[in-house]
């Protein structure tokens, strides 16, 4: 009888404070809520995973509360007693029994990968095919909404060699106000930094046609999801007209979405997110579709904490081309940690550990303190 059968699965909601309010088009984060997943196996191995959303239901179809409830009531019972080492069979079992729920599934797959890496003495990146780099350059989001404050923050990041890629969250304000804000920041930073924008679907096509032209003409390098994911024809037209590359983000809610976007020519860059694809292995299938279609890649985030960030990082370091780098800065947005050793950020990069599994251990006291009661 196998000794790596899954014995128990626990999902814990954790609320962590952030360094500042993080303003998005649809929501302003005052804290970040993580769902920490612990899979315990008969051989004594424990795997850690994380499922994190941005603003709960303000962003997508899953919230921390629904993730925990669906794991506890529906997904965990399907895995108890199953072979933890056969990750493929475990995830296929979930996919056949439960539609969607990609955030919850991603956290479970990450935990299974972490456990298997510990079992074999290998980093998760080696289970995913093998890393081709040791670190990932990481962008920082300037999201205070105040132009002077954002410029000061960017200058500090450049001076400390922490970030030289900056993304601005826009869309909540009048278009002209947002354009002035972005252009002023780009002019202040000049060629020392890459400046990009994320509109989170808040423009209609008529606004986006003009705004994308202005942004491209003023040196903005990348424009993320300017219009609704539902307006596929509009995305195709924008991708053909915009002087700056258009990146699909909310448009990709599954591997199948990635195939459809690529076939239609709706974006020239894909944002890769393990949570929206259903796990690290699933996001690599999206990457393969993009690469086959000549679409560039960007390692995205749902502002995960350390566990979810390293689950993404272990997948991303296996990719040959990450033209637009990553934005795996989630742990840097938090003022508190629940792991014993935080991920290492140095010289503009996140350095991915080579220790078994994801390379993290929980700080049990901190986890208990910040767990939602």
Q: What would the CATH topology of the largest domain be? A: TIM Barrel
Count of individual domains: 2
- The residue ranges in which pLDDT falls below 50 over 5 or more consecutive positions are none
The CATH class of the largest domain turns out to be Alpha Beta
Task: Count every beta strand, where a strand is a DSSP E run of 2 or more residues.
Answer: 13
**Strand line-up of the largest beta sheet:** 5-6-7-8-9-10-11
- Series of H and E elements: EEEHHHHEEHEHEHEHEHEHHEHEEH
Assigned CATH architecture of the largest domain: Alpha-Beta Barrel
Fraction of helical residues: 25-40%
Name the beta content range. Answer: 15-25%
Structural class: alpha/beta
Explain this structure to me?
The chain has 373 residues and is an alpha/beta fold. The chain contains 13 helices and 13 strands. It has helices at 64-79, 87-97, 102-120, 124-127, 147-159, 175-189, 205-217, 232-241, 255-264, 274-277, 280-293, 306-316, 364-370; strands at 6-23, 28-41, 46-52, 135-137, 140-142, 165-169, 194-198, 222-224, 246-248, 269-272, 296-299, 344-346, 349-351. Strand 7 (194-198), helix 7 and strand 8 form a beta-alpha-beta unit. The chain is globular and about 60 Å long. The mean pLDDT is 95.
